[in-house]
Amino acid sequence: MKLRLTPVLRLLFLALMLAAFGAGAVEKPADKPTEKAAVKATDKPVDKAATKSTEKPADKPADKTAAKPTDKPANKTAAKPADTAPPKPPEVPAKAHLLIDFNSGRVLAESNLDQRLEPASLTKIMTAHVVFQALKAGRIQLTDEVQISEKAWRTGGSKTFVEIGNKIPVEVLLKGMIIQSGNDASVALAEHVAGSESLFAQLMNTEAQRLGMANTHFTNATGLPDPQLYITARDLATLAAATIREFPEYYPWYAIKEFTYHNIKQHNRNRLLWRDDAVDGVKTGHTETAGYCLVASAHREGMRLISVVMGSAGEEARARASLELLNYGLRFYETRELYPEGKVLQNVRVYKGSIKELPVGPQRVVAATVPRGQADRVEERVELQTPIMAPLAKGQAVGNVILSLGGEEIGRVPVVALEEVSEGGLWRRGVDRVLLWF
């Protein structure tokens, strides 16, 4: 049987043959322009010299071509501060230390940050935190008069010098505890908030769990030694950050340099308050077994850092180490805020819910802490669960904002539902069930 080609098929066949021939025709000649381009790139004098000799004449043109391309890029690279890595963090002679950015949470320096250690009077950061919570909830007032118990009066260690039976306002006791590190004031506040110091310690532990302080346990409100009282540098930074974030109306009390009660003036033991105007808190601590401890915070040019030094050899050692850490971070790093807390990043599809689209945003401020000059190189991406199913509570995590620099992850912040989504009706659930099959 002979194959018959209609005129249309003939034309189509002819077009295909011409196209195939044309494709083959453009492959061979392509070699010559490529060679010409290569010759131009290597410079003409090099080619001429190479035809006469393989060694001597090649030296001069080679020098010229080497000088031009290599010098300029080398200078550009050297001039870019963005490409220069910061120096190593300072050495800290202490049992543990930590330097962290308040907004991004990025750790800039650390040693033994998860080792359980005695907190000494750093415990009072949590004592004050729980009292601030009671004030915020309206359970107590700053003007409440607290009657000093015998237990509070007899508590040893550093004192505000309250006297048994006296009635002292909550605000005075708080400043006596924060500025003077008064153990007697700490016990009096604990008893006023919870009825007893032991019950108050339970409130402290509950708050530690809420904040994610996984390696912390409190047994008293003062920080006096106890085998079951411990905390870590990481947990202390978490606690200090929570106090700064949640109680901006009370945090400035940590920067007060002196306080007088009962005609006795006492100075704040945080020496950094006198040495650097950027430092505005937070608390010192010391016992024979814990050593000298200091949690400090500094704020400069929109960047806030928190340092923790635990178990150093003396007052000057803890102050010097803390200041070196803070200056290191402020000098060699910068923090840039990318998104505020609660900003709508996307409206995402929700299945089997009362609404089809849900606004989602970061759980907290999204910020990147990077070596100075590299903030413009930060990359971000949003990763969401799929599919997102109702019901959803407001604040429920549905993904992450992930930050990276040079291909390395430098931070992530949970992405949460910005609205509550209840379960949809029977029809909506049925339709979405079918859609999820495809």
Features:
alpha+beta, Beta-lactamase, Peptidoglycan synthesis regulatory factor (PBP3), Domain 2, 3 domains, 5-stranded antiparallel sheet, 17 strands, 24% strand
CATH architecture of the largest domain: 3-Layer(aba) Sandwich
The portion of residues forming beta strands comes to: 15-25%
Level-1 CATH class name of the largest domain: Alpha Beta
Largest sheet report: 6 strands, mixed
Quantity of strands, as a count: 17
Instruction: Provide the spatial order of strands within the biggest beta sheet.
Output: 14-16-17-12-11-15
In helices, the fraction of residues equals: 25-40%
Rg calc: 34 Å
Rounded to the nearest angstrom, the distance between the terminal CA atoms is: 48 Å
Shape: globular
Output the CATH topology of the largest domain.
Beta-lactamase
Helix and strand content put the structural class at alpha+beta
Order of helices and strands: HHHHEEHEHEHHHHEEHEEEHEEEEEEEEH
Number of helical elements: 13
**Average pLDDT score:** 84
Unreliable stretches (pLDDT < 50, length at least 5) are 11-82
Count of spatially separate domains:
3
CATH superfamily of the largest domain: DD-peptidase/beta-lactamase superfamily
